[in-house]
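Encode chain A's predicted structure.
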Amino acid sequence: MFFKQLQIALNSYIQAFQLVSKNKMWSLFLWSGIIYFLIIVAGLFGVWRGMYAISDYIFSISFIKKWESYQAIKWLFKILIWGIYLASFFMFFSFYKFVLLTVASPLYSYISERTASVLSGKQFDFNINQLIIDIIRGVKLSIRNLFRQTFLTVLLLLLSFIPIVGLVSSVLFVLLDSYYYGFAMIDYSCERDKMSARESVLFVQRNKGLAIGNGLVFYGLFLIPIIGIIIGAPLSVIAATISMHDAKK
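Encoded structure for chain A:
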């Protein structure tokens, strides 16, 4: 069952490209790219300035600040500072998706709704009150997933120091990220089907193949400079909607 779901999720990306081309939905990708660009610029600036202030404060009150004048170990300070920067950027890129998916949730919800309309031939009425309720529900679910993923990521990081487990930790990291990426994309369809947050969680847990398959491609798209960033999220939303439609059939 898992591999059947995985196959549905992967095949849905091919159908997503065809659906977007046929229905001229490429303009939606531009709006997603603009939102992503604004978030990434603001986030990187905030992380850079924040970590600079934090690292400077730590060194100013630390006893090792006295050793900075020694040229022999000055390189050590540079390594420590850049280590803080790199760790901060890694954490930012690992979890910025929750910010992106929360801020852009009205757009992605619309993309999922429009895709479902094309697939089913059914028109969905816009309701501002329902939109606000859906956004609040989505934020709560994103926070829940953020804490769970953070806990599991830290656990995997600790387990990676065990020799044999450490060999597969990188694969587990990718699968974990993919699961939660796919979860976010599938939830737009669950939300439209009037599932509660708990019902959505239970649905995704029973259909891990759909979530992981969708998230794996989404993960891979982000490795493509610029283009992958612009098309990654909206295409994954469309693919998730198609996979949900196929899975129901």
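The chain has one domain: 2-33+96-248.
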